[in-house]
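Milestone M4 deliverable, item 7.
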Amino acid sequence: MSFLPVGATPYQQYIHEDIFSMTRLLESCGYSALSTHPYYEIGWGRKVAYPHLGFRESTFLPDYPQENLIRSYVSDQEMYEYVLQKLDEGPGDQPRFIFGITMQNHGGYTYEDGNYTKHIELEGYSQEYPQAEQYLSVLHESDKALEYLLTSLEDYEEDTVVVLFGDHLPSVESGLYSEIHGKPLDTLDEKNLQYTVPFLIWANYDIAEQTVERTTLGNLGRYLLDTAGIELPAFYQFLAEFEEHVPAINQLGYFSISNNCFLTREEAQGEEKEWLDKYAALEYNALFDSENRSYKFFNRYVPGTP
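Output delivered:
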């Protein structure tokens, strides 16, 4: 998103043809791919975008039994049960790639009806934060559901990797973040705290334990491929090298190793600017420059492209 206009929605605005994706890469390695989201298919143009990203099968809210709801959304527990079922139903002996987007913890956090239990109360703050308490309460349910999923996969007959991540902090009372931090989030480094989310990579076989201090959501695919022992193609090799020079990037700016802080892209100099420019050029080539799209990086994985 760093090189796209503020407020852009790529699924709806830019994905109008078949393009390179990790889905297509895994398909070229023999995987069958499924995307699933227990909500409506029209959101963010997923119904149109997912096939262009290489998903031959996509399922949405009508495909779920909707028997285990938290607030008004399908619970993580029900979604994980569905995912496990789809793993068992995979076609033949093909390995399976499933991309799932949960719905249980979606905002807003002012729900006041059934299917909800308040587990968390915040104490010791200057005011009440009921939206944050609701978010934390449904997150508590997510913890239990994740335990169910990973426990179920521990003895699964196939080697399996799970990547879990969030795409943004919850939109709760803004004053809570300032109170936790001790002051308003004014500097670029402080604002980037609101762009920081944890991620987890787990496998049901032995993998090296590590802690990644700082990375970008766009790099998680590379970590997944490494964990699964899949050889990195050119684009993911580039991401691995890019991360050595620019470990994190978003719409606010990037983390500068030389300055040990976040800077805006306009402030980039030297080698960091060169790598940012390379990334911008590759992204432009992938999304917009269809007549000159790189075969080495992208088109070799997209059927029917030169």
